[in-house]
## 1
Amino acid sequence: MNTALRITAFTAGLAAAFGLALGVGHATGSDPAPKPAAEHAGHDAGHDGHAGHDTGGGPAAEHLPGGLQISERGYTLSVDNPFVTAGSPTDLRFRILGADGKPVTAYQQQHEKELHLIVAPRDLSTFQHLHPTLTADGTWSAPTAVPAAGEYRVFADFTPTGAGEGLTLGADLHAAGDLRPAPLPETGRTVTVDGYTVTLGGDLTPGRSNHLTLNVSRDGAPVTDLQPYLGAYGHLVALRAGDLAYLHVHPDTTTPGPEIGFTTTAPSGGSYRLFLDFQHQNTVHTAAFTVTADGTAAPAAPATEEPAADHQH
């Protein structure tokens, strides 16, 4: 994920201020895997703290958030079968194709993994952070199951060996089934997940570097013995509602809680979903927040129990 509000970009991309477009109807169509484009020079920043990638398309493209493109800098995300059935286990298989059209087989580790895979629906109601396995022929695979029908976005966050900077590519995944569109989840500054209470501090101001804090407690007591997860005491992914732009976030914290800090820049105003992964007592938990990039949180609501996110280790 280029990972952690790399959360660079983790669910996109996990965009118009992370405004969110709802998936409508049954699964139809897919992102055709385009022929790899000629490689472009330049990339905004590394995995831990950039707001976009340089696609070589001029000033506007230089600040494009990650995850919005299926092909970038000569690399293409090719999903074997973008059609799945909601609620049914599936082996999600994909490849990263190089400029020569051949699968990439060598990657640099970022946050303890060679590739981070994020799966999120267009309504950002759920979030899966998967760690697929790689075969010798360049095929990645990850067992998963999407919980509901609709349109999903798959984000591959990786750095090919010798490529220098990492990048995040995104592709559509279509889940057939009984579709029940839902609005963007509303949260206040505090959510409860798996018995833990997580409180968000700080604001998102478009176009400016922002410092966010997340404070973790349990049964009214601060949690001061968080365990490292993916090389840090917290991992944050931010997705912009509407287009699911994937925002990478830079972790600032070097102590095991209770406060976890991140630095990020929102590319625009609008609504964003923030997904915080943290590990305690050998179990990874995910707290999700809805915020707006005008400096305020979404409409206040009582502490809510967030659905458990899926992880693979």
Note: The radius of gyration is 18 Å.
## 2
Amino acid sequence: MEDIINFGHSHREEPIADAKVRAAWLYYVEGLTQEQIGEALGLSRIKVVRMLAAARTEGLVKIRIDARSARQAGLERGLVTCLGLDEAVVVPAARDPANIAAMVGYAAGLWLSGKLTNGTALAVGWGQTLHQALRGIQPRHLERMSVVSLLGGLTHSRSINPSAVARRVADMFGADCFQLTAPVFVSDAALREALWREPTLRELLERARAADIALVSVGDLVADSTLFRERLLPQSDLASLEKAGAVGDLVCHFIDAEGEQVDHPVNQRVMAVSPADLKGIGLVAIAAGGAHKAKAIRAALRASDAKVLITDESAAEALLGTTDFARQRTTNTDIGEAGYGQ
């Protein structure tokens, strides 16, 4: 019978094999110290050191974490079944909420690396999660690959600038890169319509619509979301967007709980491929985590017809409606090694 670890802080038990996976994520992805991992898992530092060493020896950790815990696998199966997905990737919940984007982004990069082949046309969004995805991408040269940015750019350039994310992904694969050369938000709807009539931007829109894969993230309607934190929109818009029914944004378009764009002036000023345009793309993946984003994630899945969700345990549990979901469904589960790129 497999040994069990009792987690005093969370009042649950977990097999040692699963604890190794959790410890590996905390150490190699979230960046916690061995002491912090010991505190999080209710283990001594020596035990943590041994578990991390075993994870390396057993091949669970290479450049990537090449295993899922029974808890993760149970949540993944639940998401696929309940949300009608083709695939779900669930990473352990971050001990520090500030690290959610790093955890989910890393997994998104691993997933994407396994999907790209010669000739792939990739469309990418932006945000902190997709910026963190760059850490998980396994660079290599691919023939005839192209990357297109789904959004306009920022005049004050930062690492999470949509154009920067697309460019860096393209560089990792020696791919051509196509940019939406306009501000992500313009002054009024008339200017937006005029810009979309430009032949080069119309060509980019058609290229995005014809992509094989799209990887996007989701923002929720809070003051600390990327759009408001980076001051692309004033904080004063939060109240009116909420009144209009918005629960979050997908490629900078604000959507309601049913995935429909809300009637709000902001949506008339955004220079980005629309959620409806994503529906024609071969495979759409959403990468977003945190229980607080569950409503926005569900709305984004509806808006885009995405069939892949890359998220964390807390968001998965919120989406499924119970924190006991995985525990109820992972008894006697036989979990083998499986890389996120498989």
Note: The longest helix spans residues 100-115.
